[in-house]
Amino acid sequence: MASDKVLLVDDEVEFVETLAERMRARGLEVDYTHSGDGAVEKTAKNHYDAIVLDLAMPGMDGMETLRHLMANHPDLQIILLTGQGTIQTAVEATKLGAMDFLEKPTDIGQLIAKIKAARVKRMQLDEKRAATDIEDILSRRGW
Predict the structure, then answer these.
(1) CA-wise closest residue to 28 among 7, 55, 54, 53
(2) Of 24, 32, 62, 95, which has the maximum CB count within 10 A?
(3) What is the pLDDT along the chain (143 residues), one digit of tens a residue?
(4) SS3 string of 99-124?
(5) Which CATH number describes the domain made up of 5-141?
(6) HSE-CB for 125 with a 13 A CA cutoff
(7) What pLDDT shows up at residue 106?
(8) Per 3-state DSSP, what percentage of the chain is helix, strand, and coil (rounded to 5)?
């Protein structure tokens, strides 16, 4: 089975590079960017099982990035990771489609578990879409 593919989005260069290294050591395939604009670019070109998105970034912040990503890729599994979270922000992010919300510093084991859950959810959505497509094809052909 292929490893989980994750995109880390955080403007803190040392943090994201260290987290990426720790995740790779646990068998994940990790890509990263330091901006919301970079996340938009990378998701347009690549498939990710999960996106770990920082909330507080200069330019396009995490909430704006979340809105944009969900508008263009509603099946994305996004985990917000922040040092400045509030319950109100977590609720808003969930309403926008975020899968989960974790505070920095987070336990790596907990984050990995969330990423694995995101992959399962993504696979279920893909299977459901494929079944719907097959039903549609069969009904159009009259089989």
Answers:
(1) 7
(2) 62
(3) 467 899 999 999 999 999 999 999 999 999 999 999 999 999 999 999 999 999 989 999 999 999 999 999 999 999 998 877 777 888 888 899 999 989 888 899 999 999 999 989 988 988 998 888 888 888 888 76
(4) CEEEECCCCHHHHHHHHHHHHHHHHH
(5) 3.40.50.2300
(6) 12
(7) 86
(8) 55, 15, 30
Return the domain boundaries, the chain: 5-141
Q: Is 59 left (phi over 0), alpha (psi -120 to 50) or beta?
A: left
Tokens for 113?
A: 């578990």
Alpha-carbon 46 to chain mean position? 12
Per-residue tokens: 13: 């260069």
105 upstream amide cis, omega within 30 of 0: yes
11-21 exposure pattern, b = at least 16 Cβ within 10 A, e = fewer: beeebbeebbe
Q: Is the backbone of residue 97 left (phi > 0), alpha (psi -120 to 50) or beta? A: left
